[in-house]
Amino acid sequence: MRNPVRNIRILPLWLNITLILLLLQSGDIFAQSPYKGNAWNKVSQLIPGRIECECYDQGGEGVAYHDSDPVNNGSGKLNPANGSFLNEFRITEGVDISFTKPNEIDNNPFNVVEPQMGRLYVGWTVPGEWINYSVQVKKSGFYSIGLMYTASGDGGIALDLDGKLLTGEMKIPSTRNEKEPIAWRQWHHWNKIDSLTVVELKKGQHLLTLKTVSNGNMNYDFLDFKLVKK
Ligand SMILES: [Ca+2]
Ligand SMILES: [Ca+2]
Question: What is the pTM of this model?
C-alpha cells in the first residue's frame, strides 16, 4: 500500500492541510495512544461483576465517548436541574442519561423483566455512538455478557476491548409492544438478557468500549459479566 503521507507532498498546501486533518480525524496516522481517559471517579469497574453503563470514563467527547450531540438529553433536560443527584447526573456531558421512575413510567405492565426504581441508565442511543469503560478483570476466563435494557425496535450493539473487536454485532431484541397505549412508553419496556454471548478475557486492566451499531433507540442500564469457564 502507498504511503499516504508521501503522496500528499505534491498537492497544494490547502489540500495537504485538509487531508492531514481528515487523516487525523479518521485516526489513520495517530491512533489515540496512550488512552487519555480515566475511570469514572478513578475506580475501574470490576469483572466479574456489573458494569454500570452511566459510569463510563471521564475524558469527554472523542476520548471517553462519542455522542451524536453535546447535550445531555436526560440530566438537566428531560429531568430538570433541581439540585438532585439523579436529575443532574453528569449534566454537562454529551452522553444522555436518565433513571428509572415509578408511577407506571418504568414500572409499567409491559416490562419483560421488572427494573429497580432510581437506576441510572444511558439512553437516546444512536448508531455510531460509543462509550468507554476502564475495567479490571480479576480472573482470566470465559465470561457471559448480560444486558439490562429497553429497545423500542430491534437493535444491535458490539463491544471492543483495548481498541480491538471483542464481539461482532449482537442483536438486541425489541421490547416494543403493540398493546402499549402510551407512545413514549415504548422506550421504557425493560428486559434483561443473561447471555448475549461468551467472550474470553485476560486478567488485568482493560478498556471496554460499548458501541451502538444498529437502530439505536435503546436504553442501557448495566452489563453483567459472569465467569462461566476458567
Ligand atoms: Ca447527547
Ligand atoms: Ca445503570
Answer: 0.85
